[in-house]
Amino acid sequence: MHVKYAVLAIAASSAAFYAFGRHGRDAELSLAPPAAIRQAVAAGLPFADNQQSGPELAQAQPPANPAAPSAVQPGQPAQRPPVVDESALRYFAAQGDTRRLEAELARLRALYPEWKPPTDLTAPAPTGDRELERLWKLFSEGKIGEVRAAIAQRSTSDPNWHAPADLVARLDAAEAAQRLVNASNARQWEQVIRIGTETPALLTCANVDALWRVAEAFVQTGKPERARDAYSYVLGNCNTPAERVGTMQKALATLPDALTDGLLAQERQTEFSSIRDEIARRRIGRAAEDPKLTASADDIRRVEALANAATTPDDAILLGFYALHHNDPVRAEALFQAALQRKGGAKAAEGAVLALGANRKYREAEALGSQWLDAGAANRKAYLDVATTLITQEPAPKLDRAVVERIAKTVATDRYAPGAAGLGWYAYNSGQTSPAETWFETALSWDRGYEPAAYGLALARQRLRDQAGLRAIVSDWGGRSERIAALLDPRRARAVPVQEQRRDDIAAPAAPVTRERDIVEPAPSRPVRSRAARQTVQTDIDTEPVRRRQAAAPAAGSCGNGQSGAAALQRGWCLLNLKRPAAAAAAFDAAMRSSSGQVAADAAMGKTYAKLQQGLTAEANVAAAQTNPAPAQRRELSALLLSERFYAQYDTKDYNGALVTLSERARLAPETTDLMMMRGWSYFHLGRYSDASRVFTALYKSNGSPQALAGLTAIGDVTRQNRY
Amino acid sequence: MKTLLATVTATMMVLASAAQAALPDGAWELYRQKFVTSEGRVIDDANGGISHSESQGYGLLLACLAGDRSSFASIFAFTRTELLIRDDGLAAWRWDPKASPHVTDVNNASDGDLLIAEALACAGARWTMPAYTTAARQIARSLAKVALLKRGGETWLMPGAVGFSEKDRPDGPVVNPSYWVFEALPALAQLTGDQSWMQVQASGLKLLDTLAKAKMLAPDWVSIKDTPRPADGFPPQFGYNAIRIPLYLMRAGLADKARMEPFRKAWAGGTAVIDVKTGNPVEPLPDAGYRILFAAMACALDKTPIPAELKSFQPTAYYPSTLHLLSLSMLRERYPQCM
User: Fold this and answer.
1) What domain range includes position A185?
2) Considering the domain B2-338 in this protein, what is its CATH number?
3) How many helices (H) and strands (E) does chain B have?
4) In a domain, A269, yes or no
5) Which region among A497-501, A588-592, A677-681, B314-318 has the lowest average model confidence (pLDDT)?
6) Shortest CA distance from A178: residue in chain B
7) What's the complex ipTM?
8) Which of B81, B86, B129 sits opposite A191 (nearest CB)?
9) Nearest-neighbour CA in chain B from A46: distance (Å)
């Protein structure tokens, strides 16, 4: 025997959320007598006291009326003949209202499982009561208020007349349905539960929406198990496919896995297969983000089958990231390449770059990543990671000029300290110690706490015999970095293994100074490098102060005046170190005319750097344009140059000029968070506190940054000082 | 003991009078046709056609006074289905036909709840409908939990569940003296056996008497944080809210001459919104539904005859029309000689 009529009972024990009661002859078997339900309700709901939750709140008839509404007063069948009220059924049939007819049939079948619907539904209703017909008509038109008014009217004029119990019950249910929707829309969850509990007739397959809303109310009031029970009721009893799938989706969206597993088991045939796909994807997605989680073989098989069957890239990307973060970069690479072929876009490219990097295919990774630099922050991050790893390798790889240039440019645009340090190692490992020193300094200026850059700087100064410079680094960093301290302490240098420090996956090469002799003789096409190596490869650890670089004669002549391309290049770096970027740029210009491609490439990089350091005049823009003819790149570099000019102006306290520069830059590129912050400080220093406050507030609201808060605090301090 | 006796007496009077009170012939019908829809919604036509717990409450009360059981049933059906949806069982105060969902502010308004409860008690008694009485009792109990504030020996009726307390506003608590529907308070005390409602009545009267002594007309919104004063952020006016106060006092039989005096004096030059700080009129209130408020006071206190044109009812806008009918029913019940 099917149990179709659900009485929503919130039992105190809650072991059975739904107690199933039946009406009719054997209703004494009812599991949930109404008194018990009401007590349970009172116990379970904070605001409902006993009087509040009784059925009286419904607009019942005066007590003189013996016909209690059947649907809202279950459990008193002994006093009621098991006569099925078919008047509504007949009315809807006569009206041709098949939707309501079906709903009424379902309702009566649920109430009276042994009842057989009459075959002559279209025959006139036996009542012959014109006015009653009018009431049903009003009801079927949804005119609840008018039915209420008409019933009251007739009760007044004819005290012996009583509205049919069925009509009253259906009115109550219709009102309760509307009320439940209203309460749910107003997020009055306790009221939603109360209405559902008081009107169990509402919670049937004829109104799955009401069941969903009650379930949502249970979720919102912290009773997920009861929500589960409501969903389970739908899956156990209701047949509309869309509602069944919708139920499962709602359950998945709001309930923890532990509660949805049982619901999934209520699947009929394979109706939830798309949902199961989604679940598998969700689990793999979670595991892809958290390497500690492992996806089940079933889930992986399922999504693999989906990925193979599809022509879209999403599942391949999902599996790619899972493989990448679960020690299978080879597979990840294949998946991301497949995704790229399926037009997987930026996400596929990001994954492919990371996977190639994980497979030590740094050149390929850099080349691919360079094509996606405009796709978003994640792509730039992936690119910078692999590019930095590429240039940090030992021995320094031989790279095309274009590659080094674009790495330098991207690093500079993002002010990415590990990248600058990486370029430092690249120069250092290529024997170009002066440019290495400059890059390490740059890295430190972008991130003052970045130890690998300090270490690189110390090694570069050591190799340049800049003893004072080395001591400065050691005194600054010795307390924080054992390997830096060890540089001036030969005993420790020998005793303490130099630790390789890593940040992200960027390797700062371990003590390359001890391996300087091992540097292979550079290829003939790289004369600068071989020359530089020869110059420095003399003694590996020479703590004797030979000369102080800064104290050396500042004349250009001290950097040499050779006319070859290689000499000009070397002079360029030397001048740059002397903080003479203009003269350095001229030297790099000369070097760029060299017949050697490598010299020219290195010179171009040097010149870009010289211009950056120079404070970036209009001339610098032209220089940049020469090396980067594409308009988009020019814009990017111009923006970069303007950023540098801004910082220069800011440092010299030319705040008005700095703001003008920022405005100029804003025409080329959106303002970065860093620059916005500096804009705020520029306003601050100019005493434009309200402008400053606006900027800091915007920043604080957008990312909650403590720096922005510090700005706001500073304004508060100053303005308060002004007031008192 | 004396208080209890007074309560019971007052309650019996309210209930008995409700059953006997009547409106002029056809007056309610005119009102109903203009402001009550067939679905039972009472429309505030001057406010963009919205409805609120106050309009539904007035509609229910007038239907009961008019003996219109049928309209009462439909208005209550609407009220219950659309507004009585809060977790605490009180009515959401604002319902906009143009908005979806229609309830645009789920906060309650305590005067709306009071009116609905009083009207349900009236209907339950008048037509022997325990369901209505029970519903009235539920609202009264919930309102006592949610909106009564015991503070410094007084029991205040807060205007709503949220927004007016000490922690909600720097000048809080803030109350609205016109939310004291005085006639409802003894009925609620009797329904629930909760004497807090009589303390609410006492605090309300004390507030009015304090303001009268300070020669200040009651503002719509009053900060009771310290000495009562107009609440911040509201115009310091005896305005559309507060003009109901003398009517409520008369309806409840609490119209002592000294208590009424400030209101009568303020309107000596004609009914108007009054600036409580200067005593000057801000905006005239020429509608019959407003003028009868003054005429009723004058007749009740000094037996000044009421102009004939005010004794008959023609609907204008929802609010003055409502006050007009409440005034007429009050005069017929308490001051038949004025009619």
Assistant:
1) 58-264
2) 1.50.10.10
3) 13, 11
4) no
5) A497-501
6) B81
7) 0.90
8) B86
9) 9
